[in-house]
């Protein structure tokens, strides 16, 4: 099969096994031996059996309540107003939309762009969602549309030589912003009574460095990040944004018990006894206390996470599932 991925990234070519920043979309391309082509060159994409479009989220200028807070236009509008899908379908056999970020993201667009985005989803040959929960959203949005799940994937070649050296510390999955719920994760992580770490991101807040017992990693390449992850005993990720779920999967690879969002597949499958509603801080605290005080429960969660990763998220299982769908 001849496969292409189209994203807003500017490079063109194939992902090599030695790529040091093998995050989710790169892992997909590598596993399918798919060529990456910049979205700006969509007019040049032809003769492919399968074309996957990871459409850019676009910048928004509304707050959490929907009130306008700026006048920045959505750069994704250009493509929504173009003949993107029609052009690709005329020159290739199948064209798919791949979810980028939370499924609801487009509802913060201006009304015209919301309708254009909906029309784009309606016109592709299939929608590939991150989670079973997201699939229900898209199936309800467009009844009759072909909706599939493209699971999160890790390529192990770059990290298989990492030997975990577990330290008594806890990793939280994000900064103090609504997108990540870092504040809530920090409060739950405090129950362990050990050093708390997180990684810097675009969402890091002013004075976050001043929070007691909170340490920050700088932004790192994926393989460097995984080496640091391997050193943790516990993890907490109460991120309300339902997305690819890489954090829970990264932890499961090393058998690190992770308390997290019950709607995310990687969390639900790899850490079934540590799933909570992200607003149920009480239940999350109780799980943290149990992991801290019950060594048998901790060991069971650790072994289960690693075994479920191996069973459900190894590359051969992933490729078979996608190839069967295709």
State the low-pLDDT regions, or none. Answer: none
**What structural class do the secondary elements suggest?**
alpha/beta
Number of helices: 12
The CATH homologous superfamily of the largest domain: Glycogen Phosphorylase B
What is the β-strand count?
Answer: 13
> Strand order of the main beta sheet, please?
2-3-1-4-5-6-7
Query: What's the end-to-end separation, in Å?
Result: 9 Å
**What order do the helices and strands follow?**
EEHEEHHEHEHEEHEEHEHEHEHHH
Q: What Rg do the Cα atoms give?
A: 20 Å
Supply the number of structural domains.
2
Strand content: 15-25%
What do the pLDDT scores average to? Answer: 93
What is the CATH class designation of the largest domain? Alpha Beta
Kindly identify the CATH topology of the largest domain: Rossmann fold
Helix content: 25-40%
Largest sheet report: 7 strands, mixed
Query: How would you describe the shape?
Result: globular
Tell me which CATH architecture of the largest domain applies here: 3-Layer(aba) Sandwich
Can you put this structure into words, describing what you see?
This protein is of the alpha/beta class and about 325 residues long. It has 2 domains: about 5-150, Rossmann fold (3-Layer(aba) Sandwich); about 160-310, Rossmann fold. Helices cover about 35% and strands about 15% of the residues. Helix 6 runs parallel beside helix 10 and helix 8 (about 245-255) crosses helix 11. The mean pLDDT is about 95.
């Amino acid at each position: 099969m001849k496969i292409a991925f189209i994203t807003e990234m500017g490079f063109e070519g194939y992902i090599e096994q030695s790529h040091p920043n093998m995050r989710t979309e790169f892992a997909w391309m590598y596993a399918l031996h798919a060529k990456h082509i910049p979205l700006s060159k969509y007019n040049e994409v032809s003769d492919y059996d399968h074309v996957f479009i990871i459409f850019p989220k676009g910048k928004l200028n509304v707050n959490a309540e929907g009130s306008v807070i700026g006048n920045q236009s959505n750069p994704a509008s250009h493509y929504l107003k173009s003949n993107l899908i029609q052009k690709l379908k005329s020159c290739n056999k199948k064209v798919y939309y791949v979810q980028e970020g939370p499924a609801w993201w487009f509802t913060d667009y201006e009304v015209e762009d919301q309708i254009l985005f909906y029309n784009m989803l309606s016109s592709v040959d299939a929608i590939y969602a991150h989670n079973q929960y997201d699939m229900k959203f898209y199936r309800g949005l467009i009844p009759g549309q072909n909706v599939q799940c493209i699971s999160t994937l890790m390529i192990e070649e770059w990290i298989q030589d990492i030997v975990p050296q577990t330290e008594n510390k806890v990793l939280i999955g994000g900064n103090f912003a609504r997108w990540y719920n870092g504040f809530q994760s920090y409060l739950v992580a405090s129950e362990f009574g050990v050093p708390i770490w997180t990684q810097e991101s675009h969402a890091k807040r002013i004075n976050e460095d001043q929070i007691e017992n909170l340490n920050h990693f700088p932004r790192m390449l994926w393989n460097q990040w995984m080496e640091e992850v391997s050193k943790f005993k516990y993890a907490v990720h109460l991120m309300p944004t339902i997305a690819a779920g890489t954090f829970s999967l990264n932890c499961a690879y090393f058998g690190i018990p992770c308390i997290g969002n019950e709607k995310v597949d990687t969390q639900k499958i790899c850490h079934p006894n540590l799933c909570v509603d992200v607003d149920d801080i009480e239940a999350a605290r109780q799980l943290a206390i149990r992991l801290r005080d019950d060594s048998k429960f901790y060991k069971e969660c650790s072994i289960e996470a690693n075994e479920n990763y191996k069973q459900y998220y190894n590359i051969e299982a992933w490729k078979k599932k996608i190839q069967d769908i295709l």
